[in-house]
């Protein structure tokens, strides 16, 4: 089969890889219906993470082709969605709703789902079958549920977005935009998207943003305060992962408010004294997408939400390198790869 390999920063190639096989009796093999490139794939692409011949990709939807002897909840022919973290969904951490930190977790990035086929560990715990074979136009939205939608959703839940709340969103990538969508679905009264790109502002508004703030850093914080009677937002979603974005999120939050942070943290150091004085709740990390999948699949199936709108470039798998370039150069928000 063909699959994406990153040999070094900036060096992405589509190569012939071994077809995956069942290794553990709890595994399933899927044929991908589509794959995509994640904003977090840009960290190694830009040299911020080590990379040396690694298979790439952790988002996936597709059809089960084979199951191990112990798999009972999905069968060949089922169309399935899974999280970017495979989990047993039975351990104490999973049952508490933190499947992304399952005691048996397998990061799907180690499998590499920018490929034609993928082995899914803990298939019973990880995969959720859709009610039937989806219409073609639902596939991008179902693929978004695998990571960016589930991550934006967790960020909104962690930030306690809900009725009567003002939510600010730091980051206008796919996760930030879908954090806006999640905040809207959760009933937030006012949603402030922080973005300086016209096309992303437009999508943010379509997803439910009521206000746009173009300023960043201290100026962005001042603007959020200005819009909230000097108090700051009740709920702030952080969807970037840098020192600047994290501090922008914390400083935009009112005392007693909540920050949901899901941008993969890179060299972020929190100043203790400022944090002490801020009196904000911090909750974040790799999103337990599996917890939300049944609900998100249903919302997509019923066409209540359209998270697939974040894909603004579609390329065949063979042109993955161009997809990485387009996202790196910000010519695309999120790239869908057809397989
Ligand atoms: Zn578990």
UniProtKB/TrEMBL annotation:
Cofactors that this protein relies on: Zn(2+)
Occurrences of domain Enoyl reductase (ER) (ranges): 7-337
Keywords assigned: Metal-binding, Oxidoreductase, Zinc
Pfam families linked: ADH_N, ADH_zinc_N
PROSITE patterns on file: ADH_ZINC (PS00059)
Record family assignment: Belongs to the zinc-containing alcohol dehydrogenase family.
Record protein name field: IMP dehydrogenase
Natural source organism: Tersicoccus solisilvae
Lineage: Bacteria, Bacillati, Actinomycetota, Actinomycetes, Micrococcales
